[in-house]
């Protein structure tokens, strides 16, 4: 279970040291020899820094990039008269880049636009460039983030727009919507739901997607409508959380886990029954390490899972800031005693608490 991303909190500026947990061995800094510009078309940004600068999952407010990406995927082409920010990204000068962004503020927007508009810029370098816009909460940066949503901005665009919501970008986002039978980006709908334009307009735009072909988009539409208090949407959230398959239940739980807009007391009642839901969501400990150093698959009795009830407990306790005598950690299973303690504290807070999970459904 990854930490939650507190939407609206700018990502911290990294210090210049290896990212803990990402590299098992310190990576020596590679100093490339002087080369002419024509020879430097493949200059790379090291993967561990890309993982740190883009978006790490959830609470760290940066998203972890897949560790399987090859180094060449992180390339940014160098050329004569390259903008200053592009050079800093290219040369991994992160301290200088953050200082430059603080100094230039809105003036970096044209530089980022130049970087992301170059067809030779890699997807990872694009997301790094978009990430710097999160430090510049202006209309111009929000506009570029909106343009990048679904086109290289990744979840950087999503989080940046939630942190800096501007009514002016809503038409840009709406124009990106595909018909319900074709739309596949639930984050687009979740972002639109949080842009401050009249609720009636957002409801009208989101409602057709409750019937979308893509399951994640349907759930995204339901969550957006629930955020806007559309009648019947809370019942649909309940159906989503009662899904009878692992993938169907994971989608709504991860929306709660990733987006602060839904981590409010308003939505705690719909999560309480999930405290009783044993459905396995994530495998833990798929390999057994033997005494001789070899590995073997665990038996069914040895397998451990992160279950729906573990996600619910983590989300509820963090949402309500409940004082508990145990530590909330990632990738852990909570005991029945710990769940019962949280239930009692919910009763003390005035919530109606059940000992049953949501009725099983086929989702939404």
Give a written overview of the molecule:
- The structure is a single chain.
- The protein is mainly alpha-helical and 364 residues long.
- The chain has two domains: 1-19 and 34-176, no CATH class; 255-364, no CATH class.
- 42% of the residues lie in helices and 4% in strands.
- It has helices at residues 47-53, 84-90, 94-104, 108-117, 123-132, 139-148, 154-163, 170-176, 186-192, 199-206, 215-227, 233-241, 246-258, 268-271, 308-320, 336-348; strands at 280-284, 287-289, 295-297, 304-307.
- Strand 2 and strand 3 form a beta hairpin.
- Residues 1-33 are annotated as: Disordered.
- This is Outer membrane protein ImpK/VasF, OmpA/MotB domain.
Q: What topology does this entry show?
A:
Layout: H1 47-53, H2 84-90, H3 94-104, H4 108-117, H5 123-132, H6 139-148, H7 154-163, H8 170-176, H9 186-192, H10 199-206, H11 215-227, H12 233-241, H13 246-258, H14 268-271, E1 280-284, E2 287-289, E3 295-297, E4 304-307, H15 308-320, H16 336-348
Antiparallel strand pairs: 1-4, 2-3
Helix pairs in contact: 5-7, 6-7, 9-11, 11-12, 11-13, 13-15
Region (Disordered): 1-33
Protein name: Outer membrane protein ImpK/VasF, OmpA/MotB domain
Organism: Cupriavidus basilensis
């Amino acid at each position: 279970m990854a930490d939650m991303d507190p939407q609206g909190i700018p990502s911290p500026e990294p210090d210049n040291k290896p990212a803990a947990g990402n590299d098992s061995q310190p990576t020596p800094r590679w100093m490339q020899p002087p080369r002419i510009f024509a020879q430097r078309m493949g200059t790379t940004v090291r993967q561990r820094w890309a993982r740190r600068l883009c978006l790490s999952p959830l609470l760290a407010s940066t998203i972890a990039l897949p560790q399987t990406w090859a180094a060449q995927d992180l390339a940014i082409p160098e050329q004569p008269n390259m903008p200053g920010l592009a050079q800093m990204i290219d040369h991994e000068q992160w301290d200088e880049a953050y200082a430059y962004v603080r100094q230039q503020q809105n003036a970096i927007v044209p530089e980022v636009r130049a970087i992301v508009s170059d067809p030779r810029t890699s997807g990872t370098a694009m997301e790094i460039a978009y990430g710097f816009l999160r430090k510049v909460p202006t209309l111009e940066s929000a506009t570029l983030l909106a343009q990048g949503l679904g086109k290289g901005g990744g979840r950087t665009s999503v989080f940046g727009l939630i942190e800096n919501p501007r009514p002016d970008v809503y038409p840009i986002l709406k124009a990106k919507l595909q018909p319900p039978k074709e739309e596949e980006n639930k984050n687009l709908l979740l972002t639109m739901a949080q842009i401050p334009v009249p609720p009636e307009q957002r409801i009208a735009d989101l409602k057709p997607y409750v019937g979308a072909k893509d399951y994640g988009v349907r759930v995204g539409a339901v969550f957006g409508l629930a955020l806007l208090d559309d009648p019947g949407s809370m019942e649909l959230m309940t159906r989503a959380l009662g899904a009878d398959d692992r993938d169907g239940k994971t989608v709504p739980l991860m929306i709660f886990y990733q987006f602060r807009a839904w981590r409010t007391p308003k939505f705690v009642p719909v999560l309480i029954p999930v405290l009783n839901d044993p459905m396995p969501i994530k495998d833990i400990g798929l390999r057994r390490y033997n005494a001789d150093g070899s590995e073997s698959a665990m038996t069914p009795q040895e397998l451990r899972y992160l279950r729906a009830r573990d996600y619910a407990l983590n989300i509820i306790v963090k949402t309500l800031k409940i004082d508990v005598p145990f530590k909330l950690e990632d990738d852990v299973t909570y005991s029945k005693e710990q769940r019962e303690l949280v239930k009692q504290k919910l009763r003390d807070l005035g919530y109606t608490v059940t000992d049953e999970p949501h009725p099983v459904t086929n989702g939404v």
